[in-house]
Design goal:
Elements: E1 10-14, E2 21-23, E3 27-36, E4 60-69, H1 73-85, E5 90-95, E6 99-113, E7 121-128, E8 133-136
Antiparallel strand pairs: 1-2, 1-5, 3-4, 4-7, 5-6, 6-7, 6-8
Length: 137
């Protein structure tokens, strides 16, 4: 795979619940992480005393984070509303030349900051709230 532009990693939100996704404006940095808990089934009979894990068990989750500057009233306002209302809308994460991850996420963190001689910035953290799909590009 060739080197990719970081700005091409996009976080999109279903703005009205109708499947119309819009890129969250102003993001400068984005991150997507996947996690899987393991279930340890090691016993005294485990070969050589090596740990054994139960395949297909455990909780899988994903997290998304992003930070940037305010640029668009629509997406900024919708993200704020989603956080305060505790909604879990559908999001898409577009990974350039790789694929699209889609599913429901809850905004679990929303931080605002700014300095007197700089722009207002924000950071968002989201946690998966259901099954995710992946479609290769």
């Amino acid at each position: 795979m060739a080197v990719q532009n970081g700005r091409d990693l996009l976080i999109k939100m279903d703005m009205a619940g109708d499947g119309t996704f819009q890129t969250i404006a102003g993001l400068r940095a984005t991150r997507l992480g996947f996690n899987a808990q393991s279930v340890d089934v090691t016993s005294l009979e485990s070969q050589g005393g090596w740990r054994e894990l139960l395949a297909g068990a455990g909780v899988r989750s994903a997290s998304i984070s992003g930070s940037g500057v305010f640029r668009d009233e629509g997406t900024d306002g919708r993200a704020r509303q989603v956080f305060f209302d505790g909604e879990v809308p559908r999001f898409q994460v577009v990974i350039p030349h790789f694929g699209v991850v889609e599913g429901r996420f809850q905004i679990t963190g929303l931080e605002y900051s700014g300095s007197y001689n700089g722009e207002a910035t924000y950071e968002m953290t989201m946690a998966s709230a259901g099954a995710l799909t992946f479609v290769a590009l």
